[in-house]
Predict the 3D structure of the following.
Amino acid sequence: MSEFNAVKGTKDFYGQEAFALREIENIFRASASLFGYEEMETPILENYALFARGAGEGSDVVRKEMYDFNDKGGRRLALRPEFTAGILRAIVTNKLYANPDLPLRYFYSGPAFRYERPQLGRYREFHQFGIEAVGVNDPLLDVETLMVALTAFSLLKFPSLKVKINSLGDEKTRTSYRDALRKYYADKLDVVCEDCKERFRLNPLRMLDCKVESDHLLSLDAPKLSDYLSEESKARFEKTKAYLDEFGIAYEVDTSLVRGLDYYTEFIYEIHAFSPSGKDYGALGGGGHYDGLLKEVGGPDYSGVGFAVGEERILSLLDEFGLRKNEPIVDVILLPIGEEALPYAQKLANEVRLLGYAVETPLKSMKINAAFKKAERKGASLAILFGEEEIKEGKLQIKDLAKAEQKEIMRENLAQTLDEFFQKEEEE
Ligand code: HAM
């Protein structure tokens, strides 16, 4: 393996694919903005301890998947494996919790890093978009976050989503459930995998989503969390479901849903989709409510709720559904006929740009057929042709490339002609 290969599990994005990834992000940003969320950008680098405490020492993300290292000053740092802990840290660092307008509502996006086995929809560096709403404990706010995600998916015209929900209950629920799990697994520790032995010690809840087949089978007979929900948590979950019903959000209660990070309490959810060819890219996004996290990172005892989606997974599915649109690289292509027309072409190019239309600087005069082929590759919908004669007479030939219709216009009518053409194109 050459040291100049891309790092395993990373991916280069360029051209149309980079554009499509940005488009996904833009649509999620637009959705979050519609709900009154503001942007927050936090560092990729954080102290290791933040994630160990935040995401939970019992989670695979912290135990096995963190890119952590000592910097040259001996500080133990990590590349963020997720955003939530960093966002809450920033809320504390900047004392944003001292705000009359709670909840705080923030959205964020950028790369995250997990040392996972690369496979379909799973990278070591990937992009997330997410939101956090912090400072108010209300099932309505929990549901709001799910609505932000679903609004974005509907703006993306995404077909066939499945929302899975569950309740992890409050602290009381979790303590009694953990005890029940420890009791169930106590005499089975010699048959579970090495990881599960450690999970048993750190957080037995994590044993339920072990990927080892025999452990998975064991988990099927384990006590069910739903049987241990406290009365308060049960009532809260009922209220959450009533809101979902009221807003017409379809969902499936999946009592085996636990999520991969330790901070969740009460309502959790995941958004799944199946591709037309039946490929499973895993969850497109997930999130839920958390109670002790802000306090854990040094803030007041406020609850929060949020979700994150994986942008690469959404992109792959949009591709499979044929929903990804190619974006034109230029709107207009200029065809100077003959070398003498080149200087004129430069001036015209600047004029077209100032009118708001994208056009490349023509560097040489091209043969007409080659130029039209290039126009197609670049996604241009209009060509402007001119040679010595047009320049002398102050005229331009305008060609609608899709319809193969050409007409002559006076140069002073260029702005009007372009505006009319592109307005009509937008309407069609
Ligand atoms: P998560 O479920 O760990 O949640 O990740 C959210 C999404 O990121 C996943 O559903 C998936 O689409 C994507 N993702 C995760 N790992 C990878 C990977 N290795 N390669 C590609 N995509 C991946 C969180 O990160 C929580 N912070 C969400 C949250 C926010 N909960 C409350 N607030």
